[in-house]
Structure formats: C-alpha cells, structure tokens
Amino acid sequence: MKFSKTGEMIEFLRSKMLQLADQHGSLTHPDVIAASQRLDYFIVSVQKAAFSATPETRLPRLAR
Known about the structure:
- This protein is mostly helical.
- Helix content is 66%, strand content 0%.
- It has helices at 6-24, 30-52.
- The chain is elongated and about 45 Å long.
- The model has no long low-confidence stretch (mean pLDDT 85).
C-alpha cells in the first residue's frame, strides 16, 4: 500500500491498531501492543525528520 501523505499513513496505522484491539477485545494483547509500537515508531521518525531538517525543508507546524 502506498501513501501520499504522512497523515494517511498515521491514520492507517491507527486504524489497524484499533481494529486489532476490537478483534482481540484487549488493548494489552501482544498484537495490539506491536501495532501501537509501529505507530509510535513512525510518529517519532516523522518528528525527528521534521526537527532535524533545515528551515527550507522543514515540515510546516500545525496551527494551534
């Protein structure tokens, strides 16, 4: 599956995690924890890339 935007990938991983939680009936099931860790890893990777980028290539900040 190919994603054109970071947000789409985050939403996909989040949806998959929630689907697994519903399927297993538990947020502490090993499959759900693994999915959560994948989501966390992806988010941290995106954040590291955004903060280490030069101002010209930095991702825009979200409005507050």
